[in-house]
Amino acid sequence: VLIDLDTLSETSDFQADLCIVGGGAAGITLALEMIASRKHILLLEGGGLIPTAQSQSLYQMDIVSPRFQPTTRSRLRYFGGSTNHWEGSVRTMDPIDFETRAWVANSGWPISHSELLPYYDRAFSYVETAPRQPDERPFLEHLGRFRDQFDAGGFSFRLSYHSPPTQFGVRYLDRLQAATNVTIATNANLMSINESSNRSSVESLTICNYKRRTATVRARFFVIALGGIENARALLLSDAVTPGGIGNENGLVGRYFMDHPVVKALTFYPTDDFIRSWNKGAAMYRSTPYNRYLEASEATLRRHQLPNSRISLVPAPQMRTSKGIESAHQIEKAISERRALPNILSHLGNILGDRDLIMEAWRRTRGDTPAKSRGDDYGGYLIEMMMEQRPDPENRIVLTDVRDSLGLRRGRVHWRVAEQDKDDLRRMVNLFAKSAGAQGLGIVRSWLELDDTDRTFTDLLSFGSHHMGSTRASHDPRRGVVDANQRVHGRANIYVAGSSVFPTGSHVPPTATIVATTIRLADHLKKWLS
Ligand SMILES: Cc1cc2nc3c(=O)[nH]c(=O)nc-3n(C[C@H](O)[C@H](O)[C@H](O)COP(=O)(O)OP(=O)(O)OC[C@H]3O[C@@H](n4cnc5c(N)ncnc54)[C@H](O)[C@@H]3O)c2cc1C
Q1: Which among 165, 176, 163 has a CA at the least distance from the CA of 45?
Q2: Where is 496: in which H helix or E strand?
Q3: pLDDT tens, 93-124?
Q4: Ligand 1, residues 33, 78, 82: which to mutate, most atoms within 8 A of Cβ?
């Protein structure tokens, strides 16, 4: 059954066995999994079946950060959620990502990689990729001796898989509508989660449509699946009984918020032999489409006490890897910020060496693109690293006093890359450069050495748009908002689904892990509901 709350002349209250709030990857997966339970499932979605400005504007937030993406652009607020614009890169996290790593404060998941593996296998079919390959080595055979040489140097090739990309709303609406025990209500915005006076459980939700007509939802169990930012906001907003919001007794809701910073880290000039082997690798192996990337091996991460990060090799034109163009940007930034440039002479040298490219870049900005130019020639493999960000309590979601169009307090994101994260990146780049050199694989030029004005973490920084950590999971209520089964600590019947429960974020795009953890949650709820 599909109900549009905006078109109902009167809104009546709802009753269900399980109420899921949020129709993105997490909420839709959970609803699909629960069809077999035969219990009455109510799925509430704040947007409609198509995007509207009215719904999307509710994603507006204040941002306190040297650089963070506007939250109206990095998320979509309608049925299917942000899977309506995701890129479909799929991978399991690594075993080490789940461990308590002595060198990463606040690391450690309450579940292990091996416990999650069967759920990953089920998740891969929801995102419509080929089955997970327990042995990835045959996929990398075309790399010949280079695969082993990288291994010997402490870096290993890995695979990531392609989702079509599956748009969960489009792909699964029919299946949900066909289920007799599922009701989907669109334009149903969560306003508050209403606790019992002794805070032991949730009694109801208050929802409203865009005409501000409210309704009450009662259920045995509630799951909040609003995405990596809104999950925290919804708990913070629900503070009628617990000061500071549901589950916030220890001040953790909203804290440890993470994304995957994507950083222009280095240019790799591999040997011709390597490039020949690399190019032999088709993007398909035994009908499985895949991508290859490098990461530091587990032993390297342990020995050098580093967080995880992804090293993707992408051949780039000289226009993107020119030292001279970057030096010109450094000088421009230093002048505008009235700061001294310690390496001014080498910047001037770089500009002289690439003056033709700089002229060409300038001509291109005026729409004058030459038919053939040096700027388009091969300029090495540009490596933009996707970093694991250390969980930092100061990176957080809080509420402001400004109200959105539904009358709810708007959120604010505090986000930065800490000095320790920057240092991790420097150390990783140096290790990779030394390893590639020692194994005779090629030459590496670090972009960080050129960077005197912190452009790496400001103008050049981009993002995975992977919002994680703001309602982290832990066995210990003093360290996490939810427990190992994603139930809010101290509450009998409210759960959180999605990447907000990740205690750490690896470098791996989150959706496969969101779906896997949600299927695990579904198995848990099925037991309780029966
Ligand atoms: C450009 C881009 C590319 C990406 N590429 C990848 C990739 O390649 N691989 C990968 O793994 N991940 C990728 N991601 C991330 C991926 O899109 C998210 O991880 C995933 O969509 C999160 O699913 P979710 O269900 O937790 O949240 P969402 O998809 O955000 O769903 C939340 C749902 O809740 C609804 N909602 C919000 N507030 C309310 C409310 N108050 N009341 C009721 N409903 C509400 C929303 O409308 C939405 O439908 C990408 C993201 C972006 C932006």
Answers
A1: 176
A2: strand 494-496
A3: 999 999 999 999 999 999 999 999 999 999 99
A4: 82
Residue 197 near residue 504, CB atoms below 8 Å? no
Here the tokens at position 36 are: 């077999």
User: Which of 240, 202, 234, 236 shows the shortest CA–CA distance to 221?
Assistant: 202
- What is the per-residue pLDDT across 298-317, written as a single tens digit (0 to 9) for each? 999 999 999 999 999 999 99
Q: Which residues line ligand 1 (CB under 6 A)?
A: 21-27, 44-47, 74-75, 77-79, 81-83, 85-89, 189-190, 225-227, 230, 465-466, 498-499, 509-511, 514
pTM across the whole model: 0.97
CA-nearest of 427, 415, 394 to 308 is 427
Instruction: Give the SS3 label for residue 137.
Output: helix
Ligand 1 centre distance from Cα of residue 489 (Å): 24
Nearest CA to ligand 1 atom 39: 46
DSSP 267-318: EEEE-HHHHHHHHH--SEETTEEEEEEEEE-HHHHHHHT---EEEEEEEEEH
- Atom 47 of ligand 1, residue of closest alpha carbon: 77
